[in-house]
Amino acid sequence: MRTGAGGERFADPHHVYSGDLDLFGDGSLFQLLSSARTRMGEDRLAQWLLTPSRPEDIRKRHAAVDELRGELELREDLAVLGEDARVGVHPEELVRWAESPNQMNALWLSWAAPVLALFAILGAIVWAMWGIATPFVVVVAIEAILTYRLKASLEAVLHGTENAFHDLDLLSGVLARIESQSFRSAELQGLQRGLAASSTPASRAIAKLRTLVDLINSRHNVFVRIIDAPLMYSVQVAFAAERWRRVHGHAMGKWADIVGELEALISLAGYSYEHPSDPFPEFVEGETSFIAEELGHPLLAETKCVRNDVSICDGVRVLLVSGSNMSGKSTLLRTVGINTVLAAAGGPVRARRLRLTPLQVGASIRVNDSLQEGSSRFYAEITRLRQIHDLAGGNTPLIFLLDELLQGTNSKDRRIGGEGIVRALVRRGAIGLLSTHDLALTDIGSALDGHLRNVHFQDELTSGRITFDYKLRDGAVTKSNGLELMRSIGLDV
User: Fold this and answer.
1) Which of 62, 135, 245, 271 could share a disulfide with 123, CB 3.0–4.6 Å?
2) pTM to 2 decimals?
3) Nearest to 278 by CA among 33, 14, 450
4) Whole-number Å distance between alpha carbons of 26 and 239
5) pLDDT exceeds 80 at position 371
């Protein structure tokens, strides 16, 4: 049921966690979740992933997702609508056109145009039967003068319509299917009522607009070009488009929002249906905390996903994760981050149980240098750290994820800088995880008044081959096998 869209248009290298947690792109969380058929649905889902929601909104989404999870027929019907369009409809242009002021201000022409068209037809009949062309010529001349005076307004209305409206069959179909569904939850019923707030159902109004767009596009037909002037075809179609905008334009933004909201909920429901063992998280009050049992990464296959318990609570505010390269440190940080994002979006999480207070994520995991921006990796990292620092202390507490902190500098500066950064974040009310394979950093807990807990991943080197079990253990790592591994492949060290 997934569209295959990776949401690359939402990728922002400067966002405080989206690139670090693989939210967008091929193999991303967005691609795993999204079944949206319109850009409105994609926009709303991306918004939920990029910005944490309020607990009261999340609980409403839980009720809606719980209901939609069992509505397989609804989700399948939406999935096959307008398959050629893939993900269609451009809401910004559509709403902008719908809410624009009318251009055709000479309203008397709205009734004069069909009258003149009738006179032109009668003139043509007189010409054909009696050979008198004067009535037809006079009427067409009047029509040509009026049409010329309206040229600018006509172009604004008709050209604007053609550019704004694509895939209206898809949008009308999505609206009609949603309107016909019987919902139980208050959240879904409220959204559905919003589509029927005016005298005409949203799906019918969009279908009417689709017909108007067909009439506008017909102006390029050779036959229509011939009759355009005498029948004032373009003028009459433009007035019809203006009438639609006058009656329905004010509701277009609301309809787009409702479609986006419902499609985002349906995307979460589809994921929930496909992963029935993934529960909704529990949001709790009190001291900032993150308590997970059997936490796993949703982008890893179940057969490859090693789950761990992660607990930041009861005075512990920082987990310092040590271990060798490839042992699982970065994956653990991403696992905590991506599940926090899922929880804050209103979706289920990959865990047996997850209890947390409302949190926003700040991550420095995949920070790279930039030739275009002229910044080194170290400068890019400390810039991100400043961004994370500024987020801490806000209305929503921060959970920070710092992978191999300050590895672009020497060990002394890393030790002093790392301790200072973590201490500053803790003082601002943040909690988080810090990973390192530098054993010197495991001693910074003494400066954090007991708020830091050391944990580690272990590995084994047997017959020149390194193996990992990816299980999190208490305490700092006590051994390093870097030299043994280098020697095992023939390096003389």
Assistant:
1) 135
2) 0.89
3) 33
4) 45
5) no
